[in-house]
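User: Quick sanity check before I run a bigger batch. Here is a single chain. Can you write out its predicted 3D structure?
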Amino acid sequence: MQHSLIKAMLEAKCPKCRKGDLFSVPVFSFKRLTHIHSTCPHCGEDLMPEPDFYYGAMYISYALSVALFLTVIVAINILFGDLAIWIYIVTVIALNLLLLPLMLRYSKVLYLYMLGKIHYEPNRG
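Assistant: Done. Predicted structure follows.
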């Protein structure tokens, strides 16, 4: 059975086999929130293409945060009209804190899938 790219990315699976988990803990486990296995637990693929590889994911995380900021500002403006500035600030900060675990994780997933140079092999593992 072939695993789709989108499903593998959403489930944070290995880009080589799309079966092994990238992260060692659940998404809302704050102990080792963004810790990625060094090798895939299913197929053994090296998930650390080079030293400090995942530092580049900060740019994706920043982009996700800016997108969230813009979406919240526009949504509040459309739904509720022009409100006090503190409402915008509190809402953006609260949503950023709430979605931080997801944004940190998916920035690494996106970075690995886009720049990791790991290609899917359906019969791997």
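The chain has three helices and no strands.

User: Great, the batch can go ahead then.
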